[in-house]
Design goal:
Elements: H1 16-19, H2 42-58, H3 60-70, E1 75-81, E2 84-89, H4 96-122, H5 128-152, H6 158-165, E3 170-172, H7 185-201
Antiparallel strand pairs: 1-2, 1-3
Helix pairs in contact: 2-5, 3-4, 3-5, 4-5, 4-7, 5-7
């Protein structure tokens, strides 16, 4: 009699049908899993957004000083007509008033670019609270800059100013923002630049394989 033949061992290299495994459930897999949630929680993002809003808004102090320093002066002249003081523009065809608004808008755009770059470098992942903080902070900063510039500028009472300098003497008009749309320049510049930086240099989410995909990207055959 002969001994029964032993069955051959199973192949060491499993077939694609045997190698297929279902992906782990959402949130499983331990550290480094494709499904692991990264980034801070919502409370942390809200705290960061509040800090960014305050920091950006306080930048309006510097913007107001620069606006007061760089904006062109609108020349006025006082005169006495029938024992009454009147004030009129010295240069009726001048564009100084337009330059005042343009200076504020350009400075606002520059501050928006700087704030967006700084925030992106500090917090690359971004998030909705951070974007809202940039927009709100830029608007608050513009409002603060407007009031600071007006406060630092020439006196608001032009008749009293004309009387103090004398008849026919040129003096500067109060700093005034005629185009209120310039208040949005900071926020718009910050949002556009931050959006561009996030799209170009922001972190990318890892590609998650489709459910049921095999080791070679294909579903196992039945």
């Amino acid at each position: 009699m002969t001994a029964p033949l032993t069955p051959p061992p199973p192949p060491s290299d499993p077939s694609p049908h045997q190698a297929w495994q279902a992906p782990p459930p959402y949130g499983a897999g331990g550290p480094g899993s494709l499904y692991e949630q990264d980034g801070p929680g919502m409370k942390t993002e809200l705290r960061e957004a509040a800090v960014i809003t305050v920091a950006v808004a306080l930048g309006g102090l510097l913007l107001g000083v620069l606006w007061w320093w760089l904006a062109p002066h609108v020349p006025l002249v006082g005169d006495v007509v029938e024992k009454r003081w009147i004030v009129y523009l010295k240069d009726t065809e001048g564009e100084q008033a337009v330059g005042v608004d343009g200076t504020f808008a350009l400075l606002g755009l520059a501050f928006g670019v700087v704030s967006a770059v700084v925030v992106f470098l500090l917090r690359r992942r971004g998030g909705v609270p951070l974007v809202v903080a940039l927009g709100v902070g830029g608007l608050l900063g513009s409002l603060l800059a407007w009031r600071v510039g007006v406060w630092l500028g020439p006196a608001q009472d032009v008749l009293a100013h004309a009387k103090s300098v004398g008849k026919g003497v040129t003096f500067s008009a109060p700093l005034k923002l005629g185009a209120k749309g310039a208040l949005l320049a900071w926020s718009l510049g910050a949002l556009l630049v931050h959006l561009g930086l996030t799209g170009l240099f922001g972190p990318r989410d890892p590609e998650v394989p489709a459910y049921g995909a095999g080791p070679y990207g294909a579903k196992p055959q039945a």
